[in-house]
Amino acid sequence: MRMREEECTCQVFAAVAVHTLSRSFGNCRERIRGVSQLELLYAEFAREEQQKQIRKEQKKIKRKRKRARFLKIAVAVNVLNMPECYLLNTL
Fold first, then answer.
1. 79 Cβ partners below 8 Å, 6+ apart?
2. Is residue 87 a contact partner of residue 79, using CB atoms and an 8 Å limit?
3. So which domain of life are we looking at (predicted)?
């Protein structure tokens, strides 16, 4: 009978040890996974910020092209509206 109690106690200790190791492993895994989740979140924010910068630059380029086109048209209209005598003197 004494042997049976000792075996039972030993099995309980083994079960507690396995359970503790399992929890420890789970906590460690969650910590590592948490860090990787933070890294993924940071990468996503960085990618979104980069896309915003690219869009901003594209808008800036588009505005410059539009202004340049407008200035070309304005210059052409001014040339057409100039008196003929002025145009003849410049040629």
1. 87
2. yes
3. Eukaryota
Rg (CA), the chain: 39
For the cut 60, the answer to whether the pLDDT of residue 91 exceeds it is: no
* Cα 13 versus chain centre, distance: 49
CA distances from 23 to 14, 37, 82 (A): 14, 20, 87
**What residues have CB less than 8 Å from 87, skipping those under 6 apart?**
79
The CA-based angle 20-26-43, given to 5 degrees, is 160
For residues 28-53, give the mean pLDDT. Answer: 87
Q: How confident is the model at residue 77 (pLDDT cuts 50, 70, 90)?
A: low
Going from the C-alpha of 79 to that of each of 26, 62, 74, 76, 85, the distances in angstroms are: 79, 26, 9, 5, 12
